[in-house]
């Protein structure tokens, strides 16, 4: 197999694959970053074309799609018969042009996403998702198993895998933002961050419950729910926005949530589950779509 791009992610991919016994050809624009990987099972190439043509499976771990196209332009390598796997972050619209390019050159295309930090690559904690033909995913099994404890093919449409990755990234940043704002509030209230962090896994059943209940209500568009009604959320959010302000947090998500709850209450909702806020996104999306 070949890895094109040995930045943080690409380097971790190379190490995990080489450690699992795979022979790995590599290329990177800045040679020092690929040369330091040289060793057992790792073969460093000076030219991208030589690295690509060294293997039937080629993983691209470059910054983004634009850079991937640029490297392919400059390499002008033979892609025929090769399985090209794109790992860079992007949006669904990025997928079709790259896939078309690979297929026009006689290659096959899989979309991939690594949903964890580079340190987790090669461990049970790493989760990877793929989009593309079942037989191509099967052909990649040695690699996917070297990279992650759990690997899932999301279907034959590579664009869907990218859309899934976008959703997962949006969730990740909501989590990061929540963590950062909580940390600021914890510091301002004198709650040691370690004490707070240790208790976070205990909230997991509550998170799963919110998602599980919310999914059912969103699908039915009936948000009737007697536990934790909007009226209680408003009371809590009134308290929290005051605390966030005193902690010096600008543009807190807590203020945004409060505005959304107030708007839902203006629309007549009271005892509903907080998932009713979904209707605000839906009507805004419909308005943008019909513009
Ligand atoms: N880091 C993470 O936690 C993580 C997790 C999942 C997914 N990802 C995604 O993985 C991709 C790579 O991320 P990374 O964290 O590995 O970033 P990185 O360490 O900055 O690596 C970027 C790679 O792209 C190459 N590159 C950038 N511009 C180039 C150009 N004009 N021509 C040729 N090569 C160029 C770099 O080569 P040089 O060494 O020569 O600069 C390097 O190999 C991104 O799409 C990222 O979103 C990252």
What can be said about this structure in brief?
With 291 residues, the chain is an alpha/beta fold. It has helices at 8-19, 31-35, 48-52, 65-75, 92-104, 134-139, 141-147, 158-189, 193-199, 204-220, 230-246, 253-266, 278-289; strands at residues 2-4, 24-27, 42-44, 57-60, 83-86, 108-114, 123-131, 148-153. It has two domains: 2-158, NAD(P)-binding Rossmann-like Domain (Rossmann fold, 3-Layer(aba) Sandwich); 192-289, N-(1-d-carboxylethyl)-l-norvaline Dehydrogenase, domain 2 (Orthogonal Bundle).
Describe it for me?
The chain has 2 domains: 2-158, 3-Layer(aba) Sandwich (Rossmann fold); 192-289, Orthogonal Bundle (N-(1-d-carboxylethyl)-l-norvaline Dehydrogenase, domain 2), CATH 1.10.1040. It is elongated. The protein contains 13 helices and 8 strands. Helix 5 packs antiparallel against helix 8 (158-189). Helices cover 54% and strands 14% of the residues. The mean pLDDT is 96. The chain has helices spanning 8-19, 31-35, 48-52, 65-75, 92-104, 134-139, 141-147, 158-189, 193-199, 204-220, 230-246, 253-266, 278-289; strands spanning 2-4, 24-27, 42-44, 57-60, 83-86, 108-114, 123-131, 148-153. It has an 8-stranded mixed beta sheet, sandwiched between helices. The protein has 291 residues and is of the alpha/beta class. Strand 6 and strand 7 form a beta hairpin. The structure holds NADP nicotinamide-adenine-dinucleotide phosphate. NADP nicotinamide-adenine-dinucleotide phosphate is lined by residues 5-10, 28-30, 33, 61-64, 67, 70-71, 87-89, 114, 117-118. Its EC number is 1.1.-.-. Belongs to the HIBADH-related family. Residues 157-282 form the NADPH-dependent reductive aminase-like C-terminal domain. Keywords: Oxidoreductase. It holds the Pfam family NAD_binding_2.
């Amino acid at each position: 197999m070949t890895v094109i791009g040995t930045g943080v992610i690409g380097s971790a991919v190379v190490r995990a694959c080489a450690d699992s016994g795979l022979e790995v050809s590599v290329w990177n624009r800045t040679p020092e970053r690929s040369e330091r990987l040289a060793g057992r099972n790792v073969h460093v190439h000076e030219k991208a074309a030589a690295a690509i043509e060294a293997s039937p499976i080629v993983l691209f771990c470059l910054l983004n799609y634009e850079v991937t196209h640029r490297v392919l332009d400059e390499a002008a390598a033979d892609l025929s018969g090769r399985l090209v796997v794109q790992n860079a972050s992007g949006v669904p619209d990025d997928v079709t042009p790259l896939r078309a390019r690979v297929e026009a050159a006689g290659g096959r295309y899989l979309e991939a996403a690594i949903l964890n930090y580079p340190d987790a690559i090669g461990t049970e904690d790493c989760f990877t998702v793929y989009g593309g033909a079942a037989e191509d995913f099967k052909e990649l099994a040695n690699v996917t198993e070297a990279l992650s404890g759990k690997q899932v093919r999301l279907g034959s449409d590579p664009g869907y895998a990218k859309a899934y990755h976008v959703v997962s990234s949006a969730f990740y940043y909501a989590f990061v933002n929540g963590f950062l704002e909580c940390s600021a509030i914890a510091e301002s209230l004198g709650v040691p961050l370690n004490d707070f962090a240790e208790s976070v896994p205990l909230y997991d059943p509550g998170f799963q419950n919110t998602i599980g209940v919310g999914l059912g209500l969103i699908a039915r568009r009936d948000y009737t729910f007697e536990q934790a009604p909007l009226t209680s959320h408003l009371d809590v959010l009134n308290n929290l926005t005051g605390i966030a302000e005193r902690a010096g947090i600008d543009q807190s998500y807590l203020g945004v949530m409060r505005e959304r709850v107030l708007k839902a209450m203006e629309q007549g909702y009271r005892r509903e589950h907080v998932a009713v806020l979904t209707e605000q996104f839906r009507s805004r999306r419909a308005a943008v779509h019909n513009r």
